[in-house]
Amino acid sequence: xxxxNLLFLGIIFLVFLTxxxxxxxxxxxxxxxxxxxxxxxxxxVLNWFPKAQHGGVYAAQEDGIFKENGLNVTIEPGGPQVxxxxxxxxxSAEFGLAHxxxxxxxxxxxxxLVAVAAAMQGSPQVFMFHxxxxxxxxxxxxxxxxxxxxxxxxxxxxxSKYDLSKVEELAxxxxxxxxxxxxxxxxxxxxxxxxxxxxxxxxxxxxxxxxDAGYDPYNVVLFVTKEYLEKNEETVQNFVTxxxxxxxxxxxxxxxxNKVIQxxxxxxxxxxxAFETESQEEFVYGKDASEHGVGYMTEERWATLIQQLHxxxxxxxxxxxxxxxxxxxxxxK
Length: 333
Fold this sequence. Notes:
The protein folds into two domains: 41-122 and 217-323, D-Maltodextrin-Binding Protein, domain 2 (3-Layer(aba) Sandwich); 125-213, D-Maltodextrin-Binding Protein, domain 2 (3-Layer(aba) Sandwich). It is an alpha/beta fold. The protein is globular and about 60 Å long. The chain contains 14 helices and ten strands. Helix 2 packs across helix 10, helix 5 (100-108) crosses helix 14 (299-311) and helix 10 (233-264) packs across helix 11. This is Putative aliphatic sulfonate ABC transporter substrate-binding protein. InterPro entries: NMT1/THI5, SsuA/THI5.
């Protein structure tokens, strides 16, 4: 009888332990669900392969700034076969990076996007020429070979503003072999990359900003669809806050963040990233950003761009600048 009682008590004890264990597991699952619910999972599509122009995004990821603001962000690289505008418009990602003129043209095509921050206050696109063979004005391009991508918007703008009828226009294919061998030729480039690579080959170059002609759209602009913004204001606010903090952090942590960028894009060397970081500094932290903070945009700049694109017959009709951008979510400075 005594043996039976001991067995009975043992069974009761096991049942009690099982119940407690089940309760703990259930509580843990509920806590995880609660934590997961508090974190918003979103995807950002870059405008190109990871580079220093995305330094603020990577800093926000590596420094835990996105996480502090309740975001779990997946960063998806861009590239020649990837359109961030199309991906965001289709709903396959929530946030994208593109240049301001791309957003304006997309709106003309019926894609309702809203820019919420600009990483670069202007365009680093330039004409590059051999040192000592430069141009003072864009009309000096006449009589020279100019390698430029067919259909690129700023070339249409330049031809509408200046008489460039004596330019020998040749298609830019991403290679600089012909340019290297032709001392008087000129080629399109980015101030933040090509001059560095040619210098490594022993070729000295100089550049002239396209923006000097008056065509200067914001670059690397953070955007969402209008519909997403209206339904997810808190998430957009948290993302913009993280984006700006990330860029401010990158200013002093670029050396370590560039290693992370290189890990995602092994084709680019650390010294090239360092050059890009240094040469883009004025575009990110200078101009209006020096007074109003990183990401700042103005109605005047957007209105000018819209009018320029309309004048080039790239828009069916102009629209109000405040329909395509907002500074509502940027921190006050």
